Amino acid sequence: MVYTEKVMDHFKNPRNVGEIENADGVGTVGNAKCGDIMQMFIKVENDIIVDVKFKTFGCGAAIATSSMATELVKGKSIDEALKLTNSAVVEALEGLPPVKVHCSVLAEEAIKAAVADYYKKNGIDKEIPAPAHCHEWEMGH
Q1: DSSP reduced 3-state for 129
Q2: Bridge partners of 13?
Q3: How many domains does the chain have?
Q4: 141 lies in a domain?
Q5: Quick check: is 38 in a domain?
Q6: What's phi and psi for 94, nearest 5 deg?
Q7: Is the pTM of the predicted complex or chain greater than 0.85?
Q8: What is the Cα–Cα distance from 19 to 63, expressed in whole angstroms?
Q9: What's the longest Cα–Cα distance across the chain?
Q10: DSSP classification of residue 79
Q11: Could you tell me which residues are beta bridge partners of residue 37?
Q12: pLDDT tens track for 25-67
């Protein structure tokens, strides 16, 4: 399987690893089929994601997509973060092998789950856009 240099960089030197104590939102998502589990933590001030961290148990692509997703939403407004798509994550990583695209979907879902948790904790009644779905799930890991 061939990975781009960007994917390898984010796998070997992942950004924003760890957890945020007293996070404003925490999202945990997983794919039972391949065993990847992602947890995202966000700190929000004035509707801006001022900090974001992740913990991922999974393959190199899962770690790289988590890392890139945190980079793409850090410093952005909640609304901008909710517009993050898995294809934007793949594009920022300059591509992923087709059987690994589901990792980018998990990264998108983890960000949205963290925002949903933030909304819930703050009594905000807003709709979270449904994450994209891809059909690579069946192709294994």
Answers
A1: coil
A2: none
A3: 1
A4: no
A5: yes
A6: 60, 35
A7: yes
A8: 14
A9: 45
A10: H
A11: 30, 57
A12: 999 999 777 789 999 999 999 999 999 999 999 999 999 999 9
Residues marked as catalytic: 34, 103
Q: How far apart are CA 33 and CA 82, in angstroms?
A: 25
Which CATH number fits the domain that encloses residue 15?
3.90.1010.10
Note the pLDDT tens digit of each residue in 96-105.
999 999 999 9
Give dist(CA 32, CA 37) in Å, integer. Answer: 8
Token pair, residue 13, equals 């030197």
How buried is 30 (Cβ within 10 angstroms: 0-12 exposed, 13-18 middle, 19+ buried)?
A: middle
Around Cβ 80, how many Cβ atoms within 10 Å?
14
Element (H, E) at 104: helix 101-121
Q: Which domain holds residue 112?
A: 5-121
Question: Is residue 55 one of the residues assigned to a domain?
Answer: yes
In angstroms, the CA 34 to CA 95 distance is 20
